[in-house]
Design the sequence.
């Protein structure tokens, strides 16, 4: 345990930042999963896809993830959704 005041303060700051980063990371992972599940069900995932992109961009902007990782995640997400749609899962028609 640190004894110096500045070290104690830095530990507190680090813990707060860690918790904030966990929240942001969890949010974008959840939005990605929602988009994938929507695409698997055959629903239109465009709105959920844009929401996932937004959350990934916010995580990248605040430094939670690296910009290359953000680009890679977005690219892979689009690839997966297109593959699901091409595999015969067509969007369900609204009644």
Sequence:
């Amino acid at each position: 345990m640190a004894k110096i005041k500045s070290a104690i303060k830095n530990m507190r700051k680090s813990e707060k930042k860690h918790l904030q980063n966990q929240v942001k990371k969890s949010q974008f992972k959840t939005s990605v999963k929602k988009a994938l599940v929507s695409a698997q069900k055959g629903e239109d995932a465009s709105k959920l896809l844009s929401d996932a992109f937004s959350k990934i961009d916010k995580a990248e902007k605040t430094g939670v993830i690296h910009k290359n990782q953000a680009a890679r995640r977005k690219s892979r997400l689009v690839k997966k959704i297109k593959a699901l749609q091409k595999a015969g899962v067509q969007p369900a028609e609204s009644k």
